[in-house]
Amino acid sequence: MPLDDDNEERKPPKGQYMIGADLEEHSVEALNGFVADLRREIERLEAAITKKGSGRETAESFFKKK
Could you tell me the superkingdom of the organism this chain comes from (predicted)? Predict the structure, then answer.
């Protein structure tokens, strides 16, 4: 299997971003869109972390009371 075939498998579909992919083929507008999407995803992940963290604190405080 030639190395080029392996690189082709790692290329995202045109207009989509994949972490670690070559950025040269994307326009500035597309890159800005990817950044906005990633920021929204980071916010979503941070909210999930906060929610899970508060649930854990509640559980820990419940078990410490007994």
Answer: Bacteria
